[in-house]
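Predict structure. Chain length: 289.
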Amino acid sequence: MATFSRLVRFLAKDGRTYYGDAILPDGVTDIAKAKQAKIIRGQIFGKYDVTDQVEDIRLLLAPLALDDAKTVRCLGLNYEQHAKESNLPIPKFPVLFYKPITSLAGPTDPIPVHPLAQQGTGLDYECELVAIIGKACSDVPEYSALDYALGYAIGNDVSHRDWQLKHGGGQWSLGKGFDGWAPYGPGIVSSKIIKDPQNLQITTKLNGKTVQESSTKDMIFGIAKTIAFLSQGTTLLPGDLIFTGTPQGVGMGRKPQLWLKDGDIVEVGLEGVGSCVNKVEFTKPKAKL
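Prediction complete.
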């Protein structure tokens, strides 16, 4: 049975939504450029088949349907240079927080900014490698931890620093958990293709200008160590997502500080995977009846 190379979920020109294996031209690795995909039948985390049926891609969606996605875990301060720009010590253990599943969004979806998050300043971007768990695991050793990864995507851990750091009572999730604040994609590249996730270029562009540019080798806790650590006493399930931290260059750490505004275009990219391009959209208060 064939396994996927680059998993996508997409709206086809026939109006239906499918899982598929993206078809890319020779030499192209950005899944966002895929125009067609081979349809996948079955269960992504069970038995499935990559068929010979090809459909045209009209729109790439979040790689996992909400029914297939599980817990969204995130790491803070996981790049050495980012910890330094934040004027914080290098952590001895992974700094873990969670986002609600409703924060997940697709690679071209708008980033909605609720009126609550329009108060004050501090709307920020964070490009992050996202590891997706493919098999249930607990207490796994570091040397075999990558065997449990379905694959990798690029994501944006959208954050509001006031709600994260000033109003959250020491908990970060208030400033990171708004709807649509975890766009990721443009697909999931199989761990069979990306065998070494610790040597990939990772970037953010804001309105076309590069504001973050680093390598995943600057991670303090690599993917294998992260999966092994998070599985100690806690079972990781198929469909769990792990946003693995951001490199230096976030708006909070710049001088002067650089905050996202209504209408900004944010592009996060990961070598071998592709890019997500999302527009910041300030939403209006709902009318009171």
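Summary: The first strand starts at residue 6 and ends at 12.
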